[in-house]
Amino acid sequence: MRLAPQIVENLQELASFCPKGFALGMHMRFAGAKVILLTYPTAWVTIYDAEGLLPHDPTVRWAMANDGMIDWTDLSGDDPKQVMTRARAFGLCYGFTLSLTQNGSRSVLGTGRPDRPYSTPEKTRIRELVSALHDATLNCGDEMQDSLDRLSFELTHPVETGSPSPR
Length: 167
Fold this sequence. Notes:
Elements lengths: L4 H12 L5 E8 L2 E7 L3 H9 L7 H8 L2 E4 L11 H6 L5 E9 L2 E9 L6 H17 L5 H15 L11
Antiparallel strand pairs: 1-2, 1-5, 3-4, 4-5
């Protein structure tokens, strides 16, 4: 299945704002997200998964309990497992979390960068992109999920690096 050009363009623009990647979970359910796009550094994702840091991540806890946006610096006081401190070693120094509920479905985004905080116009544009992606994937099936998985891989491993396709 080919993704709609607007989905591809929105994801590419989102990636351009996120030099160290992003984690986007769309249409959250009790057991997880219907769509997950993850472009954070592979070494960080490996540690995060191996140590089961998800339930200890203050950005995730905030996103599941709130709607809106919050800067990561505002969450640093509630991080007993030092998830955010450890993420800095992988260039995730400045970031924010976005949580939105539309059409009865929640989507969440975490994004970080190594060099500076996000500006208000950047956050506004990122929210617009996530909102559009949320709506465009509301009724996605397995074929769209596979296409989104491939695109997520391509955003993380550009073709010019010689990385193989995941499928």
